[in-house]
């Protein structure tokens, strides 16, 4: 079984913002899988499906970004998952807009949602897919930038990134080796 979590903030006020790259990628993956992420469980909206005989749960935590770990921990406990079966998709200011970075583990960096996940599940040993959103303009606070709407200039790069990220996640669900995916998508 695999749990794929897309990070973001719930509600229309945050729709199509930089911080919702995880949600937007999960939407792209759900479309590819022909499912809707609507079931409410463990402080998240989820969808369950099978890919090549393996169960996959897609999840969008509804706890707001900085408390994402509450949902991830609850889902991991409910489904008795090992950390290696968890994949988290999220935005990253340290990557150029639209860049993808797959990793098997790592520190949360400055991302508060990832910090909360690491704190609550007690390890950095889970897969992650980071989507670059670039640095905020010099005149803008980081918190204002990540919660701002994706700019018209960045939108085509990020839409392409969401499609590629969904393809990578689909391949991972289908059994493709993570190391192979890292070579293709990094």
Q: State the secondary-structure class.
A: alpha/beta
According to CATH, what is the topology?
Rossmann fold
User: Biggest sheet, in brief?
Assistant: 7 strands, mixed
β-strand percent reads 15-25%
Poorly predicted sequence stretches spanning 5 or more consecutive residues: none
Q: Tell me the CATH superfamily.
A: Peptidyl-tRNA hydrolase
End-to-end Cα distance, whole Å, is 24 Å
CATH architecture: 3-Layer(aba) Sandwich
Oligomeric description of these chains: single chain
Radius of gyration: 15 Å
Helix content: 25-40%
Please count the helical segments: 6
Care to count the β-strands? 7
Number of separate domains? 1
Explained architecture:
The two termini are 24 Å apart. The radius of gyration is 15 Å and the shape is globular. 35% of the residues lie in helices and 22% in strands. A seven-stranded mixed β-sheet has the order 2-3-4-1-5-7-6, with helices on both faces. The protein is α/β, with parallel strands linked by helices. Strand 3 and strand 4 (54-61) form a beta hairpin. The protein has six helices and seven strands, in the order E-H-E-E-E-H-E-E-H-E-H-H-H. Helix 1 packs across helix 5 and helix 2 runs parallel beside helix 3. It has a single domain (2-185), classed as Peptidyl-tRNA hydrolase (Rossmann fold, 3-Layer(aba) Sandwich).
């Amino acid at each position: 079984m695999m749990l794929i979590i897309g990070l973001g903030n719930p509600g229309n006020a945050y729709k199509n913002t930089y911080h919702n790259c995880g949600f937007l990628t999960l939407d792209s993956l759900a479309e590819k899988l022909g499912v809707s992420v609507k079931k409410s469980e463990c402080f998240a909206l989820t969808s369950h499906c099978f890919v090549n005989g393996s169960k996959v749960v897609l999840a969008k935590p509804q706890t707001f970004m900085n408390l994402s770990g509450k949902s991830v921990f609850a889902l991991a406990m409910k489904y008795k998952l090992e950390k290696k079966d968890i994949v988290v998709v999220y935005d990253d200011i340290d990557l150029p807009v639209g860049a993808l970075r797959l990793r098997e583990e790592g520190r949360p960096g400055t991302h508060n949602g990832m910090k909360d996940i690491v704190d609550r599940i007690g390890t950095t040993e889970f897969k992650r897919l980071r989507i670059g959103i670039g640095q905020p303009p010099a005149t803008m606070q980081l918190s204002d930038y990540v919660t701002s709407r994706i700019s018209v200039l960045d939108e085509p790069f990020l839409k392409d990134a969401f499609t590629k990220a969904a393809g990578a996640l689909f391949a991972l669900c289908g059994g493709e080796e993570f190391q192979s995916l890292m070579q293709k998508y990094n």
